[in-house]
Amino acid sequence: MTGKIDLKNLTLPALEQFLQGQGKERFRALQVFKWIYQQDAGGFEEMTNISKALRTELAETAFISNLEPEAVEEGSDGTRKYLFNLGDGHAVESVLIPIEGRNTLCISSQVGCAMACEFCLTGTFKLTRNLTTAEIINQIMAVKRDIARNPPSLLVEQNEFDDADESDDGHPDSPAAIRNIVLMGMGEPLHNLDNVIPAIQIMIDGNGLQLSNRRVTVSTCGLVPEMARLGREIPNVNLAVSLNATTNELRDRIMPVNRSYPIESLLQACREFPLPGRRKVTFEYVMLGGVNDSLDDAKRLLRLISDIPNKVNLIPFNEHDGCGFKAPSQKAIDAFHKYLIDRHVTVITRDSRGGDISAACGQLKGKLEKK
Known about the structure:
The structure is a single chain. This protein is α/β, with parallel strands linked by helices. The chain has two domains: 5-63, DNA polymerase, domain 1, CATH 1.10.150.530; 71-357, Aldolase class I (TIM Barrel, Alpha-Beta Barrel), CATH 3.20.20.70. 30% of the residues lie in helices and 17% in strands. The protein has ten helices and 14 strands. The strands form three sheets. It has a ten-stranded mixed β-sheet with strand order 3-4-5-6-9-10-11-12-13-14, covered by helices on one side.
C-alpha cells in the first residue's frame, strides 16, 4: 500500500479535498464516505453507484483498511475482549460491555501508554506508537461486524456511560447496536489528539458512523492543554477524568502527570470544558486499599469537585502481579460510596467486568504478551 492513502484516515471534509485534488466532483466524496461507513465497503469494487473508471482511479491512489480480531474472548458476565493485530508486530485490545440495547465499546488509542500511572497494568506497557485514525475507527467497525453475526447473549446490568437524566435517542437500539463509545482502552487519548479528533468526527458524522456525540466519552489522566484543545475542536463529547487522589502529594506519586498539571489546574480545566445542557464531567476514582479509600479521602473529593457538574465512578482496584497496591475492602467501598450518595453526588461503583478474560479496568495488557 506504499504511497496510497487510507481513506479511513480522512474525515468527510478531508475526503472531499482529496478527491477534488484529483479533479473529482465534491459529491463523490459523500458517496464514497457512505459506502465505507454505512455499507462497510471493504473495496472500491463494491461501490456500485460509482463509475467503473472512477473506481479504478481510486484503487490506484487509495485503499480502505480493515481490522479483524485475531482472538475474541467472552467472559462469564458477557464482556467480550477483542485482540487486534495491527500488522506491524503490535496489537491492541477493545472491550465490549453488553447491555440490552445499550452496548458500550471501550477502544484503544495507542499501543501502550506513556503516562506510567503506578496502579495501571496497561501503563507498564510503555508507549510504542499512536494508533492512526483508521485503526481507531476500525476497532468499532470490526466489533459491529462481530456482534451483528453473534449478538451478545449475556447482559451486564449496569452502565455508567448512560445518563439516567437524559432522554433516549428516540429509537430502541438493536441487539447489535453499539450505543456508547468510550476511549478508555490502551493509551491516553489526549496524547494522540491528532488522530483521535478525526476519529471522533467520523464517529459522530451523520454520514459516517452516525453516533450521538453524547454517546462518545473521552477519558484522560489530566493533560490540561489537550483538554482545552478537545473542548475547542469537539465541544460536545463527554469528558471522563481519572482523578484517583485528593492531594497533590499522593497524586504526584501514583500519577506522574500530576507533577506537570496538579489537581488545581486539572479541576480548572474541568470547569472550563464546554459541556452542554445537563451533562457532567465524570470523575473516575480507582480505589486503592489503604491508600486513597478512607472517609477523609471521600470528604476531600467532595470538596474538590463540588462546584463542577459531576458524577463519580468508583473503581475498586484490580490486583495484578508486580504491583504493590491492594484492592479496597468492601467495607471501605461501601462507606466511601455512601458518604457521596448521602450528599447527593451521582455515584456508581463499577463492577469488575471481564476480570476472567483480563478485560477489566487496568488489565488490558493482560494476556497480550502471551498472544
